[in-house]
Amino acid sequence: MSRSFARGIQSAQLGLLVNTVLAVTKLVAGIVGNAYVLIADAVESTADIFSSLIVWKGLRIAGRQADEDYPFGYGKAESLAAAVVSMLLIGAAVGIAVEAVREILTPHHTPAPFTLAVLVGVIIIKEILFRRVSRVGEEVSSTAVAADAWHHRSDALTSLAAFVGISVALIGGPGWEAADDWAALAASAVILFNGIRLLRPAVYDLMDRSPGGELLERISTAATGTSDVRAIEKLKVRKAGLGYYVDLHVQTDPAMPLHDAHILSGRVKSAIREAVPEVLGVLIHMEPHES
Questions:
Q1: Distance (Å, rounded) from C-alpha 159 to C-alpha 39?
Q2: Cβ-Cβ contacts under 8 Å for 14 (sequence gap 6 or more)
Q3: pLDDT of residue 28 exceeding 60
Q4: Other beta carbons less than 10 A from residue 287's beta carbon
Q5: Crossing angle for the helix pair 76-104 and 143-172, nearest 10 degrees?
Q6: Which of 15, 192, 198, 203 has the fewest other C-beta atoms within 10 Å?
Q7: Cβ contacts of residue 274 below 8 Å, gap of 6+?
Q8: Higher pLDDT, 40 or 22
Q9: Looking at the domain 3-206, which fold is it?
Q10: Dist. CA 92–CA 204, nearest whole Å
């Protein structure tokens, strides 16, 4: 297993541990402190536990070497994990919204003041965790790890909304008891937005959508910069896990012997993989260049 996959798995394991502790803490505080928004937050943290488990398993599968059954490797497991995590986020948002509306329509007691201290701790821990996991996701180019990171950021946002809602309920007094439920409803909208936003790149990877222009430019520059390459065309790149597969047509001197053309294709592959280490494989079709 590569170092990138190992780092992604470690970030998922850390999230799993932290979310388990926070989910229990928020659930107990929400029940004892009459704060449904904290209970909703605990539900969201529970979804985070499952998301970290899915990312962990997805990266372990994606890190396997290619075999006869899967000649292109298991990289799509990473994108599939990201899609499942995103859908969990969307499901959590819908569930929180439904329960928030039910609580708004049901009279209840004002939340206890101590719940504010719990929320402050959650916000700080979750924001730190988001920044750490997000940094790992960017460094290893993992859609699943990035989705897991935004689960942590969403948790921080819902906790912030809960803090505002409970503060309003405590300051406003009688008649403002449902402020924390309105905060939970607002937080569910934020979670839903992030879930949809994170689902899109996961689907793009599963559908082999071409990556951004910057990556294509690096590959193109490496290929055309190889001596004896006169032109390139039909450059196709698709993502698989944390890496990429490249298909490319290379044009060279029509009089070049087949053996020399074969050697040239090998040099082009080496140039591309040196310029873009994330490239896992390169398939080159040699063609005669016609002016």
A1: 11
A2: 129, 132, 133
A3: yes
A4: 17
A5: 10
A6: 203
A7: 222
A8: 22
A9: Alpha-lytic protease prodomain-like (1.20.1510)
A10: 23
Is the Cβ–Cβ distance between 108 and 180 less than 8 Å?
Answer: no
Distance from the Cα of residue 71 to its chain's centroid: 25
> Pairing mode, if any, of strands 231-240 and 243-252?
antiparallel
Q: Are 116 and 181 spatial neighbours (Cβ–Cβ below 8 Å)? A: no
Write the DSSP assignment of 218-274 as a string of letters.
HHHHHHHTSTT--EEEEEEEEEETTEEEEEEEEEE-TTS-HHHHHHHHHHHHHHHHH
Name, in order, each residue with C-beta under 8 angstroms of 163's C-beta and a sequence gap of 6 or more.
116, 119, 120, 123
Q: pLDDT-based confidence at 2, cuts 50/70/90? A: low
Q: pLDDT tens across 136-160, in order?
A: 877 777 777 777 787 777 778 778 8
Bridge partners (DSSP) listed for residue 246: 237, 282
| C-alpha–C-alpha distance, residues 146 and 137, integer Å | 5
Residues 6+ apart with CB under 8 A from 291: none
Q: If we measure between CA atoms, which residue out of 219, 218, 243 comes closest to residue 72?
A: 243
Residue 285: how many other CB atoms lie within 10 Å: 12
Print burial letters for 42-71: b (CB count within 10 Å at least 16), e (below 16): bbbbbbbbbbbbbbbebbbbbbeeeeeeee
210, 236 contact by CB (below 8 A): yes
Whole-prediction pTM: 0.70
Determine the Cα–Cα distance for residues 116 and 112; give it in Å rounded to an integer.
Answer: 8
Q: Which fold has domain 213-288?
A: Alpha-Beta Plaits (3.30.70)
Tokens of residue 111, six digits: 């939340």
The domain segmentation of the chain, as residue ranges, is 3-206, 213-288
179-206 and 76-104 helices, crossing angle to 10°: 160
Cα(270)–Cα(255) distance, integer angstroms: 23
